[in-house]
Amino acid sequence: MTTSKSAPETAGDSGEPRYPERTARAAGETRFGYFLSCEEYSPAQLIEQARLAEEAGFDALWISDHFHPWTDAQGESPLVWSIIGAISQVCHLPVTTAVTCPTVRTHPAVIAQAAATSAVLLGENRFRFGVGSGEALNEHILGTVWPHTAVRLEMLEEAIEVIRKLWSGEVISHQGKHYTVDTARIYTLPDTPPPILMSAFGPKAREVAVRAADGFITTTPDGESVREFKQARGTDALTQVGFKVGWADSVDEAVAAAYRIWPNSGVPGELSQVLPSPQHFEQASELVTKEMIAESTSFGNDPATHLRAYQPFVDAGFDEIYVANMGPHYADMIKEFGSEVLPELRRG
């Protein structure tokens, strides 16, 4: 019998890990995960994808955290904490939120409790708490003013401080510039606090990540950022990156689905942080052409094409690389990646 308060790391009654070969991988070896897009898929589909990803041989999961989808065509946006709880019952892969904003829409004390419970449900060392400074799309809903970037980063750094204090298991009070906590204690905690990874796309965000986080998250193959972060925080500091592909029987079908569902992926600059609604993203996406989407990533059902899409991220030196599907054919995509793409990636 385990004395841990966290869920067991084994499946069934045998006491053996479900996939022991994954836990035996050498330190420093790149891990390849699957990205669950809450904006596009229903709770049942997300849970199915998690199960299929584990069966196919993916190493870990990313899961997005939104109040709104980017566009109405995406059509979903379930509460991420409920989905993680359900996933914990059907899947034993590590899960990273990619990413949660713990600053505006939800107080960091509440997020600290939700994340701690998720860590307990998933089991020891299976939850990574990815955070970011957020987008107006999700954070404006309470009617508060959407802060400038510098203020959002300041709020995020203080929120991380509050969360770490609460994860100590002590009764804490906090009087800060942005947040107040009055004699609060989280009782349901994992044996070890989960690592906090921070989304960092620019130099100012990376500076905060170096000070406040245990790892960093991005969506671009920026090898220089990986090297700088590891130089500052140590080679064991976890770096993650994610990207999307489109799987279908033909390239044209895959591109058409991505253009219909994810035109926002081509929206330029800082618009993704300041536009307040899916309708605004749909208007901005009128600037995006189908040709722009077609050139942005890999499409179709050729495993070799999708394998090449990984190469910039592998070359950049990320510890973990996550891939999401755009469109309805996720089951075929996961199966084919498991049999054709992942083995080639692991052969190097």
Please give a structural write-up.
The structure is a single chain. This protein has 348 residues and is an alpha/beta fold. It is 41% helix and 14% strand. The protein has an eight-stranded parallel β-barrel with strand order 1-2-3-4-7-8-9-10, surrounded by six helices. A two-stranded antiparallel sheet has the order 5-6. Helix 2 packs parallel to helix 14 and helix 6 packs parallel to helix 7. The N terminus is likely disordered. Pfam families: Bac_luciferase. GO terms for molecular function: oxidoreductase activity, acting on paired donors, with incorporation or reduction of molecular oxygen. It is an enzyme of class 1 (oxidoreductase). Its EC number is 1.-.-.-.
User: Which fold name fills CATH's third level, the topology?
Assistant: TIM Barrel
Mean pLDDT, rounded to whole units? Answer: 93
How many distinct folded domains?
1
Task: Quickly give the CATH architecture.
Answer: Alpha-Beta Barrel
What strand line-up does the widest sheet have?
1-2-3-4-7-8-9-10
> Beta fraction of the residues?
5-15%
The helix tally amounts to: 14
In the CATH scheme, the class would be Alpha Beta
Query: Could you give the count of β-strands?
Result: 10
Q: CATH homologous superfamily name?
A: Luciferase-like domain
Structural class: alpha/beta
DSSP helix fraction: 40-55%
Shape: globular
- Radius of gyration over all CA atoms, rounded: 20 Å
Low-confidence stretches: 1-17, 19-25
> Quick one: biggest sheet?
8 strands, parallel, barrel
Q: Write the element-wise H/E pattern from the N-terminal end onward.
A: HEHEHEHEHHEEEHEHEHHHHHEH
Region (Disordered): 1-23
GO molecular function: oxidoreductase activity, acting on paired donors, with incorporation or reduction of molecular oxygen
Domain Luciferase-like: 31-319
Enzyme class: oxidoreductase
